[in-house]
Amino acid sequence: MNAVTDNPLETRADVQRAVRQLVEPLETHRSPGGARLKPSETGAWFPDTAAELEGFSRPLWGLVPLAAGGGEFDGWERIREGLRNGTDPNHPEYWGSAGDYSQKHVETAAIGFGLALAPDRLWDPLDPEAKDRVAAYLRQVDDASLHDCNWLFFRILVHLGLDGVDEAYDRELSEETLDRLESFAATEGWYADGPPEESARDYYIPWAMHAYGLIYAALADGDDERADRFRERAAEFAPEFRHWFREDGAALPYGRSLTYRFAQAAFWGALAFADCEALPWSQIKGLWLRNLRWWLEQPIFTDGGALSVGYRYSTLKTSEPYNSPSSPYWALKAFLPLALESDHPFWQADPEPLPELPERTVQPEPELIVCRDRTADHHYALAAGQSTHYREKYTKFAYSIEFGFGVRGRRPGLEGAGHDSALALSEAGREYRIRESVEETAVRDGTLYSRWTPWNDVRVDTWLAPASPWHVRVHRLESDRPLRSAEGGFALPKGDDDRPENHEHRTGTGRAWCLTPGGTSGVRDLRANADGYERREGEAADPEPNTNVCHSRTTVPTLVGEHEPGTHWLVTAATAARDGADERWEQAPQLESVDPLVVTDVDGAELLRLERPFDPA
């Protein structure tokens, strides 16, 4: 546990104290020479040297703004000692050279940021020889190839630092790199995290592409036109991004690197840092503070008070192979506003709640429909799907703030399928495949479309549409082989009490409904009563523990079917609520007709119409 959990986060002084509280438990894990830090023994796919540099540098994302704004921290000499030793080839704690695509370039960006914003703490007290070594180490980024994505900003942040302390760097390369980064700009204030036609839209847009662009806008000297473009895109993006946040500050778990946690608030803090009033300061401050408060109420700390790897709790099963023990400290990017003086309008503003936002919001760039089911206090997004290496983090049908999402486990069958909010297909019921490589997507008339091919001779076309308090999924399954299907609803937390009176499962032909102390979740087969239709049976499936990002133990209402070779139409409705109310079960949508496919609510109002064949273009 960390003392920060008792911090009310109401004043600027509270937030300053929070940075110290978050960083202080790390000191016991620092190496004798100060250059390396390793809070636990888990590893990443890069060497420990880079991971331990990560432990040294990532706390700077909070400590540097703290210092720039006049906040106190008594560990700067220890950090300077580590900087001297880590860049000294003759010292045992030397970080080693940083070549092409090295993780070390990611971590030196925080050092560059520190030189630009707080040179009096990181640079000025160094002797001339140490300054030469630090500058030379940072300049390696000019001779290295970097991944063609947000990584290019790490070169820019290093350049900002070198420029701030009057050290040389490749200015022509800096311009080329900035131009390349701007080529990633998309519509409605979005960027792609790399070449737009092949890169994801996820949290790396707000907490990396926008945050670094705003840092550049605030610190760069003499590049006003580019700085204005960074601010303008951020101002256009802000109204989009606020839809990812619930009224209490929690945000959508979607995409990779969720272990960075309250880096979700970094964009709001970066707006303040760059003096970009994209929304009223009171609204920006409210979004920022509520997210920080929500996170610090969650069980995200180790016994020693360090941030753990995981999302809402500690688990390695949902992490990425590049998550080292210190990776979560990228969360400290949220503290950029501490660099501002106390009289800045951001700090003077009273935080306000979100305004009344639409029940559903279509976002074409990430191909999401964000839904606010206020009667159930359930905030989630429907997703057309994005093809990445991280599968379930982008290809589920829905992503819920309350119920999270699951990744696949190691066990065979549904226990390891990761099939919540997904259609899972199997030849024998042992190994399941869900939507992974998405071949085609479209957003049209409030409906999301995707085409995916789990086998060469199996094709699935999927349409998703909100139908509050439900959402509707339509699948056209074309297969040359017999298949078993399992379609899951939202994953429901089991809680700690397994007594039968606290859990209820209602299952049968075409339906599955689960109730636990964590809420209710259900799926219905809207074709269950159709003549000649292959029936799907309902059951409650229990995924492998610790595979859901929000809850360690879950159950998933599931429809299971058997399908012979041929073409099959599956029409499913799914819903969930944070409380135990189940009256919505009687409000399920109805299948009015199949050709055209029309779904209505219980009163007959049309929710979804699908003319076949559907042309996604």
From TrEMBL:
User: By its UniProt entry, which Pfam families does this protein fall under?
Assistant: DUF2264, DUF2264_C
> For the DUF2264 domain, which residue ranges apply?
11-353, 364-588
Does the record's keyword annotation contain Cytoplasm? no
Q: Does the keyword Lipoprotein apply?
A: no
Region annotated Disordered sits at: 485-518
Q: What are the transmembrane regions? A: none
Q: Which UniProt keywords apply?
A: Plasmid
InterPro entries to which the protein is assigned, alphabetical:
DUF2264_C, DUF2264_N, UCP014753
Where do Basic and acidic residues bias regions lie? 494-507
Identification of the protein by name: Uncharacterized conserved protein UCP014753
Q: Which species is the source of this protein? A: Halopiger xanaduensis (strain DSM 18323 / JCM 14033 / SH-6)
